[in-house]
Amino acid sequence: MSTNTMVRNGLLVLSGAMMLLSLYLIFRWVPTEKNLGVSQRIFYFHVPLAWAGFLAFFFVMVGSVGYLWKRTDGWDHMAYSAVEIGVLFTTLMLITGILWAKPVWEVWWTWDPRLTTSLILWLIYVAYLMLRAYSPRGEQGARYAAVLGIAGFFDVPIVYLSIHWWRTVHPEAVVGPAATSNLYSAMFITLMISVVTFTLLFICLLLERLSLRRSEHELEAARDLVETLR
Amino acid sequence: MKYALKALMVVLALGAALILGTASAMAQELPDVAAAPGSDPEANLPYLYAVYTVTWVAFFAYLVYLSQRQRDLRRQVEELRRALAEKESQQG
Amino acid sequence: MTGFWATVSALVWKDIRAELRTKDVVISVLTFALLSLVIFNFALRPSPQVIPIVAPGVLWVAFTFAGVLGLTRTFVLEKDRGNLEGLLLTPTSREAIYVGKMLGSLVFMLVAEVVVLPLFAVLFNLSPFRPGLLLVMLLTTIGFTAVGTLFSAIAINTRSREIMLPMLLLPLVVPVIIAAVVASGTALEGGSWSEMAKWLQLIAVFDVLALVFSAFAFEQVLQE
To answer: Do chains B and C touch (3 or more CB pairs under 8 A)?
Structure first.
């Protein structure tokens, strides 16, 4: 067994154990929040999903910069794999957010800065996946995607700023999160454990996807070689 | 590959440092809104079930998708190997 | 440096001359923008009270979609005539090609906008000739075409390029569109410069970032 597989298996076992721990904490241990009731427990899914999604898109940016700079396939594999998982996590973040907003704010969706920015973030990386699917195979497609991977990452803060300003122009529409309520330490611990768990899960998925991507790439190269021999 | 692994390590270290900061910042921004006082704390249980179900179904579906691609890959490797063996036997 | 600008102006003049012959891009942008203004009027049925609220949004939706159409048109023509491939064989710097293409699209879009604006004013009973609005239009169109030129160069080489360009471009230009809508609203209501300052700054910063990034990225995109 190579060190690579050993690391991967170790991470898998670790994140499995953490998953069980955080499930116990979320459903048995942590006290129910007084105002929001049990629906507040959605928080322990929602925030870690959001965090892992942003982490994924940070990886995409790093991979894209690395690819344009060094032009080695490894960087591109990392960016491409991270986008897919990042889109998975942000999709879940949006769905859990909608399911949380309904009982708490009594609407499915508000155009609050954070919600809107998340939606645009999601759209940018869905466009990335579409671009990968539709652009020419190989090096050219990787370059195109890298440009978007960088532009998208640095665009998101500007999007947030503009929506934030826009919303403060129409204060009557602000329904969103505002106040600073103190988290009980139990809640904080549960959240942290959950964040670490989802981060581990993200890394496991990323490593799996990465090795799959690498094999696909090698297979493509092998097939091209066979074609030329023929 | 070596590059990717190294980069992964660097980014992981960065990420670990960021985790605490970001997550605690997010925790500070917990929505503190209405929900009528004195309402049944378990009234919204279905939403919690929905979140739990959606999350795990999605992860499961993604894993199924990954394993399907893996199977597809294995099949293609097998095809390629067969094609090569055939060619060799023709030549030899 | 003089060589650079000489190349750029040669490229822009070439595009403008070609456009004067066919009027392909400007006409399509113009009719599309006008049609959307009319459709919006049916869709929203604005009463005189709500016109000031919806009008800037209507204007910018029309400009944005018409702009996407214009960019697609420009690059499709370019691709069909094989101009870009020919240009890449010459030792022209990629930045010069980018700036040339971008300025060309900017001129076409601005021409179309300047023609649509009085029609918009008539259709919605507004008086749009305020210097603030013109400045917003200029700055926003710069940012839009700066990003748009980069991503049309990408979209043109993909399958289903007509859908790829809006997919790539629209989420990225959200900040300038928001800023443009709010700032033009202020301008149409006769607001002061200081009320618009924040938004104009946002658009200007976006323009600078978009231009610098796109000029660098364009080289990466065009490499063969």
So the answer is: no
Are the CB atoms for C147 and C217 separated by under 8 Å?
A: no
Report ipTM for this prediction: 0.88
| Residue of higher predicted confidence among C89 and C174 | C174
**3-class DSSP state for residue A33?**
strand
C198 Cβ neighbours under 8 A, 6+ residues apart: A165
Token code pair at residue C203: 């658009």
CB contact under 8 A, A181 and B62: no
Residue in A with minimal Cα distance to B25: A180
pLDDT of residue C188: 85
Query: Which of A85, A78, A81 has its CA nearest to residue A64?
Result: A78
Residue type, A156: V
**Cα–Cα distances in Å, from C94 out to A68, C88, C100?**
16, 8, 10
H/E stretch holding A159 reads helix A139-169
Residue B2, exposed/middle/buried by CB under 10 A (0-12, 13-18, 19+)? exposed
List residues bridging with B29 in a β-sheet: none
Residue A37: what are its φ and ψ, rounded to 5°? 70, -160
Q: Tell me whether residues B41 and A32 touch, CB distance under 8 A.
A: yes
In the prediction, which pLDDT does B11 show?
A: 56
The number of CA neighbours under 13 Å toward the Cβ of B48 is 18
Token pair 């809508």 in the structure block, residue: C181
Residues of A in contact with B2 (CB under 8 A): 74
Interatomic CA distance for residues A197 and A44, integer angstroms: 11
Would you list the domain boundaries of chain C?
A: 2-222
| Coil, strand or helix at A37 | strand
Contacts of A161 in chain C (CB under 8 A): 175, 202
Sign of the Cα pseudo-torsion (B54, B56, B59, B60, in order): negative
Q: Are residues B35 and A176, on separate chains, in Cβ contact within 8 Å?
A: no
Is residue A79 pLDDT above 60, yes or no?
A: yes
Token pair for C145: 């075409």
Calpha distance A202→A60 (Å, rounded): 13
Please tell me which of C83-87, C187-191, C199-203, C218-222 the model is most confident about, judged by mean pLDDT.
Answer: C199-203
Token pair, residue C162, equals: 């007509």
Please give the C-alpha separations between residue C23 and each of B17, C146, C203, in angstroms, as whole numbers: 57, 22, 29
Please tell me the pTM assigned to this model: 0.84
3-class SS of residue A109? coil
Which tens digit of pLDDT belongs to each residue from A127-183?
A: 999 999 998 888 889 999 999 999 999 998 888 888 888 876 544 433 334 334 455
